[in-house]
Structure formats: C-alpha cells, structure tokens
Amino acid sequence: MKRTLSLLTLVVLFLSACTSVQKTSITSRKIFYAGENNGVKNVLQELGYTFVDDFNQAEVFVLNGEIPGPYAITTCLKNGAGLVLIPGKHMSYYGSDIDVQALLGDTVGDLMINNNPVSVEVDEFFGKDDPLITEIDWQNAPQIRERAFLMGPRLGEPLVRVQKYNEVILAKITDTQFYLSAYLDEQHNLEFQKWKYFNYLIYHLVERAAGGDPFSFADYEATLR
Questions:
Q1: pLDDT classification of 109: cutoffs 50, 70, 90
Q2: What average pLDDT does the chain have?
Q3: pLDDT digit string (tens) for 35-50?
Q4: If both were cysteines, with which of 50, 125, 146, 221 could 183 make a disulfide (CB 3.0 to 4.6 Å apart)?
C-alpha cells in the first residue's frame, strides 16, 4: 500500500512540475519562399511557418538565391510585407543586380561575387546594440566563403562585416528588410549552416522582417526543448 502511494505521489509531483513550466511557442507566419530545398527552407519548416504561393498572402518574402517577379514582390513590400534577401548561384547572372535594385528601391552598384574564406566581425557603429548582434555570438561564427557583396550608395545599416574590411555580410536595409550575403544552399557555406546560431539567425530575421519581436536566443532554445 505504501509503495502504491509513493508511486502515486511521484506521478502527481511529475505532472505538477510539467504543468508549472509554461513554454511559449514560435509564432506561425505566412512565408513566400523562393529557392531550393535546403537548410534555410528546412529551418522555416521546422519552426512551423506556413508557406504560401500567393504573393499577396505573404507576410515575409524569404528569397534564397532566387527572385521570382521582383516588381510584383516590390508592390507587396510597399504594402507592408517584409524581406529576407539571400543571394545564391541563381543570382550571379548578368542583370540580377537590377532585380535587387527593384526590390530595395535604391541604386545597387553591383553584386560582387567572392569565394575566398573570410572571418566576420560586428560593425562598430551600427551593430553593437542590435538584437541580431547582442543575441548571437558572431565572434565565434565559422568563416564564410561563397557570397555576393551588395554595393550601393545607401543600403541601410551594416551589422556584420568581413573582418578588417568594409564588405558587408549582414545588413538591415530597413526595419523589415534584411540582406545576408552568404550563399546558403546544399553546396555552399555548410559549416556556417551547422553553426549553433544559424537556425536562430534565420528565425530572428523572419520575425524582424514581419515586424515582430523575436525571442531571445535563450527563450528560443527553450521553446524547442
């Protein structure tokens, strides 16, 4: 009898402990994704985002190496949709800078393609207080190889740069538009995609692009346990 009561007590205590922990959940948003089936898309799927094919339904456009219908997407951006723009091999053709220019609504000098390995550092002025910097340990980020440096006279706030150079790796174009220069597919920057903070980076960019307030890295990890 005592053994039965002890087991019952343990079960009650276990259930009480479980119910006392209030886990938050990742907010589902409607995403228009363009790109191959790769690490970026996998992150979006795992976090529960809803994929839509209709531009007008999208809260955020995640363009990973492809820009389908840049002028139609631009209209959606003007109407309040957000943008996470990631270059790739399909954006290396002649004239792709015009598509980027249409999206950003500003002159783009060039998309300079590089593949030499580089380390990154936080921009001393713009980067120090942004949550994309304070929540992510960029000092320990893997080197980045294949990438497209976006050149232009007025491209928002550079948050992360190539170490000791002005080449921008991550930029906040506006409060809801972001540019991440690294190629992120199944052939390029695989070590970076396995980095501890990579999934959080994609999540944070999407939430910010949607005008949301992302979880801290610690709270984000807690929701996935």
A1: low
A2: 84
A3: 989 999 999 999 999 9
A4: 146
CATH of the domain at 176: 3.40.50.880
- 143: containing domain: 27-220
Residues 170/180, Cβ–Cβ less than 8 Å: yes
Residues 6+ apart with CB under 8 A from 159: 122, 123, 126, 127, 130, 132, 133, 170, 171, 172
Answer yes or no: is pLDDT of 16 > 60. Answer: no
Specify if 17 maps to a domain.
no
